[in-house]
Each structure stands twice: as C-alpha cells, then as structure tokens.
Design brief:
191 residues; alpha+beta; two-stranded antiparallel ribbon; 8 strands; 30% strand; disordered N terminus
C-alpha cells in the first residue's frame, strides 16, 4: 500500500524508470558485479553537459562496456571500457580536431558509509566509488571521460595551421628578422 503525505508535499515526483534514462542505470550494481554480467551501451556527447566546454562540437557518440567482477578479496568490482572519438579544439590553431578515446578503468564498489579500502593509496589498486541501490552509468562514463581527456590537445606535425615555423601557413615573421638583414652587409665589409 502506498501512502502519500499530501500535507508536507504538494507534488509527488517519482524518478522515471522507463525511457532512455533507464537504459543507462544499474538497478543493483553489487549483484551485477558479483554475477559477472556485462552491459554495453552508447551515449551521445550532447547528453553529457559537463563535457561541452571541452568540446568543439557536441555531435557524436561514445560506446561503453561494463563488466562485473569480484577482486581477489571478494569485493565487487566494475571494469569499464570507453571507446569513441570526440571533437575538441586544437590549443595552437583553434581548429577542430578529432581526438580518439580509448579508456579503461576498474572501479571498486562500496556501500555508502562503508570503510574506505586500506589499499586506496596504492596506485595499482582500483578506484573506489560509494554506490547506493542504483548506479547512473551515464554519470560514471562522463566522469571517466573527463578524467581521461588531456589538459591540452594539439594537431600533430604538419596538420596544424597555427605553427610558427618558417614557410608554414599561419607563420608570423619574427620581429628580429629585420635586424638580421641589417647585420648581413656589415659582415661582408669586414671580410
């Protein structure tokens, strides 16, 4: 029997568990991890607003795969792989650049309020995450992408139009190049 307390709340807002958001949620992440299940999905960059300021374009998608495991100490663990390409801005020329994503991480699941793992400071140990009854996979994937993106991206080699090399497109003349031409006749007179 469901009882609504209409005196303290004017409206009832229940989370919707159907539609596109339900696809990117794990109802019981602990059972998922212990059973060794796996789940694949695809997320649009446009649906991850925390990435927008790093992107040149919010079109495109990333694919993810989550596999449940148990570590040697019998703790529930999720292995996450993310693949795709995002369009970022080159920090040198500000043109669009396609950056390939290939990320892999391991996340140890903890109950809310549980003691943190004693090996949390070990760089080889997995990250840990306090999780309730539902895990939002879209948020997890967005977090991992944010952590995996480089601080500064640039085109490689000759692809960049903002290189300041001699003879390249977008190259600017050095203010000292005029001084170099003044020095040439004096050197010829000394010989």
């Amino acid at each position: 029997m469901i009882i609504f307390d209409s005196d303290s709340r004017k409206y009832y807002h229940a989370p919707l568990m159907s539609g596109p958001d339900a696809v990117h949620r794990l109802e019981d992440p602990f059972a998922f991890a212990r059973s060794g299940n796996s789940l694949k999905g695809r997320l649009a960059i446009a649906d991850m607003p925390r990435l927008w300021d790093r992107m040149a374009d919010t079109s495109g998608t990333v694919e993810y795969e989550i596999r449940g495991r148990v570590d040697p100490r019998q703790r529930p663990l999720l292995e996450l792989e993310i693949a795709g390409a995002v369009r970022m801005r080159c920090d040198r020329c500000l043109d669009q650049l396609e950056f390939p994503l290939k990320l892999a991480s391991r996340v140890l699941l903890l109950q809310p309020g549980a003691a943190h793992p004693d090996d949390a400071d070990d760089p080889a140990s997995p990250e840990w995450l306090e999780v309730g009854r539902v895990l939002d996979l879209q948020e997890l994937v967005e977090d991992e992408i944010l952590l995996g993106l480089p601080y500064s991206v640039r085109h490689s080699g000759d692809e960049c139009s903002g290189r300041a090399d001699n003879g390249r497109i977008g190259a600017k003349a050095s203010p000292f190049s005029a001084l170099a031409s003044l020095m040439e006749p004096k050197q010829a007179n000394k010989n």
